[in-house]
Amino acid sequence: MEIKPLRYLVSIAETASFTKAAHQLGVAQPAVSMAIKKLEQELGLTLIHRADRNVSLTDEGNKLYQHAKKIVQAADEAILEMSELNGLTQGEVRVGIPSMLGSYYFPPILMAFRNRYPSIALKVIEGGTWQLQKMLEKGELDLSVIVAETLPTSLQAEHLLEEEMRVVVAEDHPFSQLNKVSPAAFFNEELVMFKEGFFHRRIVDKLAEKAGIKPNIGFETNLIPLIKSITKQGFGISTMLSMVIEDDDQLITRSFDPPIWLDLNIAWRKDGYLSKANQAFLEFVCLQGKSVS
Known about the structure:
Family: Belongs to the LysR transcriptional regulatory family.
CATH topology of the largest domain: D-Maltodextrin-Binding Protein, domain 2
Organism: Marinomonas posidonica (strain CECT 7376 / NCIMB 14433 / IVIA-Po-181)
CATH architecture of the largest domain: 3-Layer(aba) Sandwich
Shape: elongated
GO molecular function: DNA binding; DNA-binding transcription factor activity
Keywords: DNA-binding, Transcription, Transcription regulation
Strand content: 15-25%
InterPro entries: HTH-type_LysR_regulators, LysR_HTH_N, LysR_subst-bd, WH-like_DNA-bd_sf, WH_DNA-bd_sf
C-alpha cells in the first residue's frame, strides 16, 4: 500500500470533496479519483460514498482514515527529521494560545521571537484550551498552551507561568469594598462569561458544580473588550486573569476566597517529532516565563 492514496483519502475525509482535496494537495482532481479507485480495488472495499455529489466515507473508509492520519503524520515527521539532519529547517511553528494569553501575555514574546528568528514563520491558533488540546493531540498543532489539570499521557508539558483568576466588577459594585469574594457570593450575581471550552469558563463551571450552584450567565462572548464593557457598565460581573485588567479599564478585581491559581503549561505530543524551529520556540517561551516568575 502506497502512502500517496492514503494522503488523498485523509484530505477527502477532511474536505468532503474530491475537488477541494485536489486543490489542497496541489494535484489534478482526476489523479485523486484514480488513486482512490485503485486503492479500493487493491483492498476489495468501497471506501467512499459518491452518491448525489455528497462525498463521505463508508464505515470501511472511516476505519482506514483513522490509520491513514497516523501514517501520513508519521511520514511527514520522518521527512522533516531527515531534512533537518542535512541542516535544513521547517521554518514554521504552529502554536495554540488561549484568547486571554494571546491578547495580553504573548504579543511581546512572539515579536521578540520573530526578531531573533526572522526566518521562522509563526502560525498562531487562538481558541479554548480544550479545543487546542484536542488539536494538539491530533497533530494539527505542534505546541499549545494548556491549563495543567490532568495532563493526558500522550502529551508532555513544561511549566510556563502561574496566574491568578480574579473576580472582575465595576468600580461602584459592592464587591469593590471586599478583600475577597466567596464562590457563593460570586454565583449570586449575573455573570458575563466566555463560552464553553475556554479555560476560565471550565474553572467557573467546576467551581459552580462543587458548590452545587447553577450559574446565572447573562452574557456569553469570547470578546474580551466586550466582557470588559458589559462589566464596567454594571450589567454583570466576570472573572479574568489578573494580567488582562489594565489601569484604564475602570474595573476592580478581587481574589476568590480561597484564591484560584492556574498552572499554565506549554505542551507537545510525546510521540511527535519536535522540529528545530519548535524546539527553539519552546526554549524561548519557557525562558521568558522564568524571567516573569
